[in-house]
């Protein structure tokens, strides 16, 4: 009978942790240097488990999810179970650590998903709970949590953001036609999915070639989610981006960074700065931006996830440097033909070390995602 009870509890734990993970996505990409964490408080007074408090890391990173959930639950926290998607913090700032807040609130059991690699937290949050007599169950849906928190974990462990390479391929493996600007390859449903991806990232990155050829906006254009547009980054070693571009015209709404050689003509920089463009002075190697150093700079700015959206040369550079952590490919049903630009990667040329995470269909367009273990 004990085994059956354990199985029932394990199922219950997975159910509520899955709900906490869904909740945590609400503020993905909007919590600054902190990860977007979800917390659910559950108690059972004899009539079955009931959610009495929920919380997600606030926009900007504070308050933490545990604080929000405990405040909502109030006195119902006594004897309850807390489901937390990341190990509760253990370090003191201006407010007590979340692990201590859970103890003070009378939480009887904490179920955690991913462990926090931050040396100020790693293992210490759970230790505080156990020392206070709180029952702790670790690693429930841990891989699912780690996948959602990949950007935070990458920045903590490797001091750089997670790099997501996103490409739309025609049925004959092309990503566009040179000289024709933006060429639609996928349909409306797939394009909406791309915009949804953008809402959960800290920045979108393209090369100056794509910026000049396509003149994109790189914003989120889903009704009601326009304010979720991430920062835009252009690799532009010679600072060629024109002030009249759509990217520059939108800086009052969405930040724009240009990664450039700091020795380039100061007048061009001053002109763009007057329009509100921000600059990242980067090292240049053989005429190209030094990508590993750039990623370190982006992490120092608090960025945890970067979507590389174009073009072929930039994508190939990230692949050659071994800096891609997640590959997202959309596949349209039509051919572009011999005049098209060949994609640097396809479903049959995924590098070693990646595993397929999921495969889906958006109307007439295929979708597949691969991830590399951190």
UniProtKB/TrEMBL annotation:
Protein's pathway: Cofactor biosynthesis; riboflavin biosynthesis; 5-amino-6-(D-ribitylamino)uracil from GTP: step 3/4; Cofactor biosynthesis; riboflavin biosynthesis; 5-amino-6-(D-ribitylamino)uracil from GTP: step 2/4
Where exactly are the transmembrane stretches of this chain? none
**What InterPro entries does the record point to?**
APOBEC/CMP_deaminase_Zn-bd, CMP_dCMP_dom, Cytidine_deaminase-like, DHFR-like_dom_sf, Eubact_RibD, RibDG_C, Riboflavin_Biosynth_HTPR
> What catalytic activity does the UniProt entry give for this protein?
2,5-diamino-6-hydroxy-4-(5-phosphoribosylamino)-pyrimidine + H2O + H(+) = 5-amino-6-(5-phospho-D-ribosylamino)uracil + NH4(+); 5-amino-6-(5-phospho-D-ribitylamino)uracil + NADP(+) = 5-amino-6-(5-phospho-D-ribosylamino)uracil + NADPH + H(+)
Q: Which GO terms describe its molecular function?
A: 5-amino-6-(5-phosphoribosylamino)uracil reductase activity; diaminohydroxyphosphoribosylaminopyrimidine deaminase activity
Claim: Oxidoreductase is one of the keywords in the record: yes
| Protein EC | 3.5.4.26, 1.1.1.193
Report the PROSITE patterns cross-referenced here: CYT_DCMP_DEAMINASES_1 (PS00903), CYT_DCMP_DEAMINASES_2 (PS51747)
For this chain, the family text in UniProt reads: In the N-terminal section; belongs to the cytidine and deoxycytidylate deaminase family.
| Its job | Converts 2,5-diamino-6-(ribosylamino)-4(3h)-pyrimidinone 5'-phosphate into 5-amino-6-(ribosylamino)-2,4(1h,3h)-pyrimidinedione 5'-phosphate.
Q: What is the protein's name according to its record?
A: Riboflavin biosynthesis protein RibD
Q: Which organism is it from?
A: Aquamicrobium terrae
- Phylogenetic placement of the source organism: Bacteria, Pseudomonadati, Pseudomonadota, Alphaproteobacteria, Hyphomicrobiales
